[in-house]
Write a structure and sequence with these properties.
About 35% of the residues lie in helices and about 15% in strands. It has about 170 residues and is α+β, with helices and mostly antiparallel strands. Strands 2-3-6-5 form a 4-stranded antiparallel sheet, covered by helices on one side. The radius of gyration is 32 Å and the shape is flat.
């Protein structure tokens, strides 16, 4: 008798598991009520240009404004404006949208510090050579670098953000 009940339970479980379930969109849409919209009704509204000025006051700016001109650089925050004329070099380092130099120090997964310079246009290899020559005197060995042409970036092993930043400020970027 127990074996018979156990077998019946087994058959019920197998039949439930083998059933083909309908796709999710069919099951949920069958439970939702069908909404019908009357397309002949027109929505009436008025346009008020006077009231929109209050909306403009709370909207964020569409772009970052140009920084003001200062009498002395660097500013108290350490920011330096780019040179008025574009430097005549085989490469160009663009600033970020916040008008900063695109230099980042970060750590690799095993805790190794690296410095990354982004947004490099032109001869990226010439900049890499100049950065190596700049950093070489402070190290006991040849600096490890990696040039990534697709992302327009150079990765240097170690903490070199301040040295590279001063170098690029002197160049006029």
């Amino acid at each position: 008798m127990k074996v018979h009940k156990l077998f019946q339970t087994y058959q019920v479980c197998r039949s439930l598991m083998s059933r083909q379930k309908p796709p999710l969109h069919q099951t949920t849409s069958s439970y939702l009520p069908q909404l019908r919209y009357n397309t002949t009704d027109q929505v009436r509204y008025t346009v008020s240009h006077e009231a929109y000025k209050h909306v403009e006051d709370i909207l964020p700016p569409s772009r970052i404004p140009q920084p003001p001109k200062h009498e002395v650089y660097p500013t108290p925050s350490g920011w330096v404006a780019p040179a008025d004329e574009v430097p005549d070099l085989p490469y160009f380092v663009k600033r970020t949208k916040y008008h900063l130099l695109p230099i980042i120090e970060k750590e690799k997964p095993k805790g190794q510090p690296v410095t990354v310079v982004y947004y490099i246009d032109g001869d990226i290899w010439a900049l890499e050579k100049e950065l190596k020559d700049l950093i070489r005197p402070s190290l006991e060995f040849d600096p490890a670098t990696r040039v990534h042409e697709v992302t327009q970036s150079i990765i240097l092993k170690g903490h070199h953000e301040n040295v590279i930043q001063e170098f690029l400020y002197e160049k006029g970027f």
